[in-house]
Amino acid sequence: MSSLRRSETVWPDESIMIAIKIIGRYISLFLFIKNRIGMKALIVDDSLESRMLLGKILSKEFGAEIVEAANGEEAIKKISSENPDVVFLDYEMPTMNGKDTLIAIRSNRATRNLPVVIVTSHSEMVLVKELLKYKVSLYLVKPISAEYLVKHISIIFPKPSSNR
């Protein structure tokens, strides 16, 4: 007799649908930023250490220009003034959290299609599904190593060619 309950058999189908949505967002984000060297990335995180780590990797590995914000309110202002090509957004922050920031980005006609990558320690499927409603481009779970970040970001953020 199986210990799997009937309600648990739905989970793989749900996971597959979420994976398909995420892959679709990977593709659309990749098409948006393909071959754009010198891209400007806004990193939004209340942790200075997290911003510095992500910024160092993005600038070293991808040649990105880095702009930083410590919370969602600051991020909204920086989006207007700096016009970034992509936003890396933490979920849990004071003042204005990642979800509220994402909603503000998506509700503004000028920024509604701006690629947003969530970088958070929260891996709960309920949260992932909720944020997918707001067209998250990619969802990365902390803690992140340089290798993990490069592997996932390389899919959507092309590295500059060293042959040119």
Distance between the termini: 62 Å
Class inferred from helices and paired strands: alpha/beta
In order across it, which strands form the biggest sheet? 2-1-3-4-5
Give the low-pLDDT segments: 1-12
The proportion of strand residues reads 5-15%
The count of DSSP E runs of length 2 or more, i.e. the number of strands, is 5
Mean residue pLDDT = 78
Shape: globular
Q: Could you tell me the radius of gyration in angstroms?
A: 17 Å
Biggest sheet layout: 5 strands, parallel
Q: Provide the succession of SSEs.
A: HEHEHEHEHEH
Report on this model:
The protein has 164 residues and is of the alpha/beta class. It has six helices and five strands, in the order H-E-H-E-H-E-H-E-H-E-H. A five-stranded parallel beta sheet has the order 2-1-3-4-5, with helices on both faces. 48% of the residues lie in helices and 14% in strands.
